[in-house]
Design a protein that fits this description.
Monomer. The chain is mostly beta strands.
Length: 562
């Protein structure tokens, strides 16, 4: 279970060792007012704040043991994948999958791991399930064998040893299963947690802003789930769900429904993961019927060069956002609400429907693919299961309390991240589309474990142009093995273009990414460097992180030769 003592949590972090001017670097977008991306009315924002006012569950935070207990990565040595039960909804026991670890006489489930760049990890994964599994270290630059890409899986009763060095920049990474055919179900039922890597730049920011992980630096894992009357998770995807993605109607933050926290009048850091199977969020902080400005400090692969002041951001499955909110700017006596604002999810775009998971949209997909409507129709059970992606939701209430005087300022420079550089040569094109059989594809390919359709040379730099068809839906595309930089967005829908600056780039596009959200009709140009220190050829995958799309085959292998 959770240990909710922040003081104990901070103490456990301290035991691990070493843990300016107001920025004038606001994101240089010229905010465009369009019908598709206009500011929400004060009434709509107030409705979200009113909903959050009724939130009464303290936000679950990692403790010194139990679920999400904090553990040095050096003590994450033998991990059993188990079936257990936890309390998610008050008073009900939910069957759950977890990574179970025993260390120092304490039991941990899905521990939040802490490490420093350069540390070595040696982990034995023991599969106590009755189905195959494997850990993928999402965002880490590893050799293929340690990546956990699913080419090697751990069968029931078997084990697998990992051994690798943490070479990546400081950031909040995460780990989750990646055995093809079981990924979505296992992640949905609990197999996922966080990995924090520190380095000198990260330590400097914490010191500059007087941040303490778990108290003034708070991880937020966003998930949507469906429960039955007994509190058991429901996951029974239909053909419709595989086409659109599974979306639950109950929203959780750190496995807490309707949560709140208290925070002082100071700069607070939120490190946000979209851990949902398919739902995208449009995040904003609200108070008094208006959106508050905040600073984007980092993305998937660590800190930006400079913070970017924005007032909203999309986050798709698999992505992370590192944000700084200055609560000295807010009015006293009023709570702040973290919400997902309404937006057009663009499901079945071009098929005559702009709704979310509705039968008409799915029939539109069937039309696009030349399929029989009867094979795509949504059964009644699935309709009851679905909440519309793109609806507005309050996620978290932040009660601002009196606190000691605080005079820290966000530094104008956060890291030495260099500017993105476009490699020479024509781009490699990756086309995302729905084929005539109703399969989401990459260049017409669907996943075949025996086929490697893309080969690159070790040490080369390439540009990839990821092109999403107009008659499509959004795809959060995730690359294993290497991070990348976004160079340009073309053809973005109005609600996205309204947030963009030069070359169509969003604020989060200025960071190192492992996952990029590509909207219908949009093309995203990215720069990749396939240099690595590992011996021999390496084999990775590139896939959609809508987990139902991935499971249905929207994934390809790619090899790095030489």
């Amino acid at each position: 279970m959770f240990d909710l003592s922040r003081r104990q949590f901070i103490g456990s972090l301290s035991a691990l060792g070493a843990a300016g001017a107001a920025p004038g670097m606001a994101f240089s977008a010229v905010r465009k007012t369009t019908q598709a991306a206009s500011a929400e009315s004060a009434a709509a924002v107030s409705a979200l704040e009113k909903a959050a006012a009724g939130f009464g569950n303290p936000l679950r935070l990692p403790g010194t043991s139990g679920l999400y207990g904090v553990l040095p990565a050096s003590e994450f040595r033998e991990v059993h994948v188990v079936r257990t039960e936890i309390e998610v909804l008050p008073g009900q026991r939910t069957p759950y999958l977890a990574y179970a670890v025993e260390s120092g006489g304490k039991q941990f489930l899905n521990p939040a791991l802490l490490a420093r760049r350069g540390d070595e990890m040696r982990v034995r994964l023991v599969n106590d399930l009755d189905e195959p599994t494997v850990i993928h270290w999402h965002g880490l630059s590893l050799d293929a064998r340690n990546d956990g890409n699913g080419m090697t899986v751990v069968e029931p009763g078997k084990s697998l040893d990992y051994a690798f060095q943490l070479r990546d920049r400081a950031s909040m990474y995460w780990y989750h299963p990646h055995a093809h055919g079981f990924i979505a179900k296992q992640a949905y039922h609990g197999l996922a947690s966080l990995l924090f890597i520190d380095d000198d730049e990260e330590t400097a920011l914490r010191r500059e802003l007087d941040l303490a992980l778990g108290e003034t630096e708070i991880p937020l894992v966003l998930q949507d789930r469906q429960f039955d009357a007994q509190g058991r998770l429901q996951y029974v995807p239909t053909a419709t769900d595989l086409a659109a993605g599974w979306v639950g109607e109950r929203l959780l933050v750190n496995l807490t429904e309707r949560p709140f926290i208290q925070a002082g009048r100071r700069i607070v850091r939120f490190r946000i993961l979209n851990g949902s199977n398919a739902r995208t969020y449009r995040l904003a902080f609200l108070q008094g019927g208006r959106r508050l400005g905040f600073f984007l400090a980092g993305t998937d692969g660590g800190l930006l060069a400079a913070p970017q002041r924005i007032d909203e951001s999309f986050i798709s499955p698999g992505q992370r956002l590192d944000v700084l909110v200055d609560l000295r700017e807010v009015s006293e006596g009023q709570a702040v609400t973290l919400a997902s604002l309404a937006f057009d999810p663009m499901h079945a775009e071009g098929a005559g429907s702009h709704g979310g998971h509705d039968a008409g949209a799915m029939e539109g997909m069937a039309d696009m693919a030349g399929m029989d409507h009867s094979k795509m129709a949504m059964p009644a059970a699935s309709k009851a299961n679905m909440a519309m992606d793109g609806d507005a939701h309050a996620l978290l209430r932040i009660d601002v309390k009196a606190s000691p005087a605080y005079s820290r300022k966000i530094p104008a420079v956060l890291s030495a991240l260099p500017a993105a550089v476009a490699p020479k040569g024509a781009p490699r094109r990756m086309k995302l589309a729905l084929d005539v059989k109703g399969h989401w594809t990459i260049n017409g390919w669907t996943f075949d474990p025996k086929v490697v359709p893309v080969t690159v040379r070790r040490g080369t730099a390439e540009t990839w142009l990821i092109e999403n068809a107009r008659r499509s839906m959004p795809h959060p595309m995730h690359l294993h093995g290497f991070k990348f930089r976004v160079l340009e967005r073309l053809g973005s829908p109005a609600q996205v273009h309204a947030l963009a600056g030069a070359k169509g780039l969003l604020a989060q596009d200025r960071g190192m990414l492992d996952t990029v959200h590509v909207w219908p009709g949009e093309s995203v140009r990215i720069a990749l460097d396939f240099s690595h220190p590992f011996a021999g050829d390496q084999d990775y995958v590139f896939h959609c992180h809508n987990l139902e799309h991935e499971e249905a085959g929207m994934m390809i292998r790619y090899a790095v030769k030489g």
